[in-house]
Amino acid sequence: MQGLGKGDKREEQALGPEPSEPRQPTEEEEALIEFHRSYRELFQFFCNNTTIHGAIRLVCSKHNRMKTAFWAVLWLCTFGMMYWQFALLFEEYFSYPVSLNINLNSDKLVFPAVTVCTLNPYRYTEIKEDLEELDRITEQTLF
């Protein structure tokens, strides 16, 4: 049996046909932005390629109009509810609500029978008038 030489027909059949030149994409295929001829075509492209659940059902059931109408109403209702929730959230956020809780717990203290010097650098005689004014303001505020 003779060996297979280059250009032999049996060798070409064993390896398969030679690869052809790659097809050059058309100008429309090369475009970065895809333009659609109508809104219906754009909507079909959106529904076929989006990751939103249920959107494909709006264009895939062309034979059953009732099913398409049901999915359209359901889809519009869910988007409406989503936008309603966004409106509520933004309204709450931009109203700048402030919550303020203040609890004052104070018990009456028994005045001690023995007074201890506090080593306070202020003399009582010098601040007596200020303390009396503070006491008056405090009484007016509390009582």
TrEMBL record:
Q: Where is this region: Disordered?
A: 1-28
Q: Name one Pfam family in it.
A: ASC
- Name a GO molecular-function annotation: sodium channel activity
Tagged with keyword Ion transport: yes
- Give the record's keywords alphabetically: Ion channel, Ion transport, Membrane, Sodium, Sodium channel, Sodium transport, Transmembrane, Transmembrane helix, Transport
Which residue windows are transmembrane per the record?
Answer: 69-90
What is its subcellular localisation?
Answer: Membrane
Tell me how this protein sits in the membrane: Multi-pass membrane protein
GO cellular component terms? membrane
Keyword Transmembrane in annotation: yes
Which residue ranges have biased composition labelled Basic and acidic residues?
1-13
Q: Coiled-coil ranges per the record?
A: none
What does the protein in this record do? Answer: This is one of the three pore-forming subunits of the heterotrimeric epithelial sodium channel (ENaC), a critical regulator of sodium balance and fluid homeostasis. ENaC operates in epithelial tissues, where it mediates the electrodiffusion of sodium ions from extracellular fluid through the apical membrane of cells, with water following osmotically. It plays a key role in maintaining sodium homeostasis through electrogenic sodium reabsorption in the kidneys. Additionally, ENaC is essential for airway surface liquid homeostasis, which is crucial for proper mucus clearance.
Q: What family does this belong to? A: Belongs to the amiloride-sensitive sodium channel (TC 1.A.6) family.
The entry's protein name is Sodium channel, nonvoltage-gated 1 alpha
Q: Can you name the source organism? A: Mus musculus (Mouse)
Upper taxonomic lineage = Eukaryota, Metazoa, Chordata, Craniata, Vertebrata
